[in-house]
Structures are given as structure tokens and as C-alpha cells.
Specification:
The protein has 242 residues and is an alpha/beta fold. The chain folds into 2 domains: 4-150 and 210-241, 3-Layer(aba) Sandwich (Rossmann fold); 157-206, N-terminal domain of TfIIb (Single Sheet). The chain is built from 7 helices and 11 strands. The N and C termini lie far apart (40 Å).
Length: 242
């Protein structure tokens, strides 16, 4: 089993846009999600996108006039993001998400941590540190927007096998195996080349974050948090700094 960063760099990152149905579809979904939250109709400001990937939310924000600091651990994904980004509006940084304060060029109005990025953190204490840092750097009325998958109810049997995407030359699926505080995710990719199917497999761990725990922690760190349904079955939380 590998680290999250090694798993993405060596296995998922080159395929990630394809797994999302392509970059254009992903940007459109990100735009719709940001519009649902009301982030594209108000005055644009300065945003931080933690775990920005290839820019599913960064690009729509920048197109709407926001200046964005996009942080991710993957060189591959950030390279893809830069091909779509206006360098005057988007600054990209490869670094650990918790080090975002070192790269700020001002006080952010908005911090995003979406697309299940939150469960990639190493443990609950690291999640608490992220909330603390977000609370410290956001002004009153500033927003922290999270999305994450609720793994607290363990799937059993064949339900643990999840189809992800497929076409004529690729089939992607994953297997979930539950431990007390984490879930082991095994990503399985079959690729067809020269008339043969070849399989690549990589595994890493995600956190099992209880939604009630997340909401309590946000409240304790000075946020008024509202849970709602997010994309692809995820939970989304819009938290406003009190």
C-alpha cells in the first residue's frame, strides 16, 4: 500500500480527468456546484483551493473573476490545471495542503477542500489542524467549503466493489475494505493495448469521517456549518466563519 501522493502520481493522476468524464465535463460540474453554493453570483475575491487537482473548481472560479491559489500534491495534475488557467488569476503550488498559509498573497475570502480531499488527510488530528488554520486565516463571514464521502457505514460483500468508468480501452473500478478509522481503497485499472488487457493495481487509505464529528469540529473552530447534498453522493458542508 502506498501513500496518497504516491498513489496519485503513480496510478491515478494521469487518468484522473478521464475518470471524471473528461476535463470539460468536470469544469461544467464544478461550475454548477459553485453556482449552487452561490459563489459565482456574488462579488469575486481571493480563494484557496486545497487539493485542486486539474482544476475542477479552480478554473470555474477563475473564469468568474476570482483569484485562486491552487494547491495540490500532484505535479501531473497541476501541470494539467495550468494548461487551462490564466496565470494572472491562478497561482499553482505543489505542497502539503496544511502549508497553504505560507503561500498566501493576502487574506482569503474562501477556502475550498472538495472532491473527497478531506478524507485523504492522515488522521483526525490533521483534519482539526486544517480547520484551525482555515479559521485563523478567514475573516468573519469568510467561507470554508468542504465535500467528502461518508464511509462510516461500511459496505459489505459485493457492494464493496465500485465501478468507476469504462470505455473501449480502459476499465476502472475500486474495492473498499473497512478498518475502524480508515478504509483501504484499492484502485484497479484494466487497459487494452496491442490486443491484450493488462491490469494495474494500487491501494491507499482514506479516513472514515463521521459527518456529525466534522460539524462539531467546525463549530468548535468558530464556524457556522450547513450540511447539504454534494456531487456524486458526497456530503457538502458550507461553513461560515463567525
Amino acid at each position: 500500500m502506498t501513500s496518497v501522493q504516491a498513489h496519485y502520481e503513480g496510478h491515478l493522476a494521469p487518468l484522473y480527468a478521464w475518470l471524471q468524464g473528461g476535463e470539460d465535463q468536470a469544469f461544467n460540474r464544478g461550475q454548477r456546484e459553485l453556482a449552487e453554493i452561490g459563489l459565482l453570483t456574488n462579488r469575486a475575491g481571493y480563494a484557496v483551493d486545497l487539493g485542486a487537482g486539474f482544476g475542477m473548481h479552480t478554473i470555474p472560479l477563475a473564469r468568474a473573476g476570482w483569484k485562486v491559489l491552487a494547491i495540490d500534491g500532484s505535479v501531473v495534475l497541476l501541470d494539467q490545471l495550468r494548461t487551462h488557467a490564466d496565470s494572472e488569476r491562478v497561482a499553482t503550488v505543489q505542497d502539503d495542503l496544511l502549508r497553504f498559509p505560507q503561500h498566501l498573497s493576502g487574506r482569503p475570502d474562501l477556502i475550498l477542500c472538495m472532491g473527497d480531499t478531506l478524507t485523504h488527510l492522515s488522521d483526525a488530528a490533521t483534519v482539526q489542524s486544517l480547520f484551525s488554520s482555515a479559521s485563523e486565516h478567514l475573516p468573519p463571514g469568510g467561507r470554508l467549503v468542504l465535500s467528502f464521502r461518508d464511509y462510516t457505514n461500511a459496505l459489505e460483500g459485493v457492494e464493496r466493489f465500485i465501478p468507476v468508468n469504462a470505455d473501449e480501452t480502459r476499465i476502472a473500478s475500486c474495492l473498499l475494505e473497512y478498518a475502524e478509522d480508515t478504509v483501504r481503497v484499492t484502485d484497479i485499472l484494466h487497459e487494452r493495448s496491442e490486443g491484450r488487457w493488462r491490469m494495474r493495481v494500487s491501494a491507499y487509505r482514506k479516513l472514515r469521517l463521521a459527518p456529525d464529528w466534522v460539524l462539531r469540529e467546525l463549530d468548535g473552530h468558530g464556524f457556522a456549518a450547513k450540511p447539504e447534498a454534494g456531487l456524486a453522493g458526497m456530503m457538502r458542508v458550507v461553513a461560515v466563519r463567525r
